[in-house]
Amino acid sequence: MELVLPPKKKTSLIKKVRNWGIFLFLVLMYVWTFATIDINWTRAAERMVNNFHRVIPKLFSPEWSAIGKVWSAMVETLYIAFAGSLMAAILAIPLGFLAAQNMTKSKVLTTFGKWILSGVRAFPDLILAILFVVAVGPNPFAGVLAIAIGSTGMLGKLYSEVLESIDMNIVEAMEASGANKIQILFQGVIPQIIPEFLSYAIYRFEIDVRASTILGIVGAGGIGTLIQFAQMNRNWEEMGLILLVIIVVVTIIDFLSSAIRRRIV
Question: Does residue 137 come out as left (phi exceeding 0), alpha (psi in the -120 to 50 range) or beta?
């Protein structure tokens, strides 16, 4: 039996004009952007070609004698990411409950909670690191605080979405049977959210490991400090070793994290 496909729906003239208008607007934006940038493209291209031949071969010749120093800095980076992620996973719990409509049952409180989380997420990790370096000095604790605050916004939002998706029939049944708020929380809500909360916290740790590798550039500790020194001294062999260590460690953590999260959820 021959299958007959339904006729293709015709696009209206208004939609065609709208789509072409959006396309032309984007093209004009790109043209305007590149036309107004004050860059000597010829000089930039020559410099890129010269640096490519001078820098790239050295990056592929790692300075193995510096492995002890680089590994110590990488371990410090992992400590920063772990401590920051743990703090964020704890701080995000009350904010997640506050931003979940079915938990507060108050539009005002939910909106307030969402505003807090949106405000926290507005700051990039690097900006937070600069602020905390000024506040507590150039040390790894500034990096921990930057990671903790930066991650709290994202985790709080994800936690609130998990809470809003739980099965409320269980909660309503416990309320109908006379259970108090504490019993409902520990026996009706938490068992439903723990797997996804843990999964998101581990996923955020993955992101924080990558983010922590550059915080040292602004003085917040970790392997980013070595990156800055290697760049300032034009020690591209050491830079190659640093990048290699980062790639290996981040890849292993991504693999382990994915395996753990598959078992949890």
Answer: left
**Rounded CA separation 79/140 (Å):** 9
Tokens of 180: 């108090």
Q: What is the C-alpha to C-alpha distance for residues 105 and 259, in angstroms, rounded to an integer?
A: 36
Confidence at residue 3, expressed as pLDDT on a 0 to 100 scale = 64
Low-confidence ranges of the chain (pLDDT < 70): 1-3, 5, 265
Q: Is the dihedral of CA 94, 96, 98, 102 positive or negative?
A: negative
Mapping DSSP onto H, E and C, the string for the chain reads CCCCCCCCCCCCHHHHHHHHHHHHHHHHHHHHHHHHCCCCHHHHHHHHHHHHHHHHHHHCCCCHHHHHHHHHHHHHHHHHHHHHHHHHHHHHHHHHHHHCHHHHCCHHHHHHHHHHHHHHHCCCHHHHHHHHHHHHCCCHHHHHHHHHHHHHHHHHHHHHHHHHCCCHHHHHHHHHCCCCHHHHHHHHHHHHHHHHHHHHHHHHHHHHHHHHHHHHHHCCCCCHHHHHHHHHCCCHHHHHHHHHHHHHHHHHHHHHHHHHHHHHC
Task: Find out whether 129 and 215 touch, Cβ atoms under 8 Å.
Answer: yes
* Cβ count near 175 (within 10 Å): 15
